[in-house]
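Wait, mind explaining this?

_____
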Amino acid sequence: MNDRPNIQIYIDRLILDGFSVPHAQRPVLQAAVEAELGRLLAEGGIGAELRSGGTVPSVPAPAIELSPDGNSTEWGQQIAQAVYQGLSS
């Protein structure tokens, strides 16, 4: 039996201030964010204040620098890690 809680996260909008992702790479970026955030939540769980459920209007994630030489998968992983830090703080 799985004792882990069922966590559902809906991200309405992801704002990357000062960084543009080519339209063709957006699905790859989205998939990378989802996969990495899912991995982080499965491994580390979620903070007690969010375990009881509810809606969080925004998550203040720490600033990150996305390398222009990176790819959408790497960027997605970095973004997910920042979002997870925001959820955990």
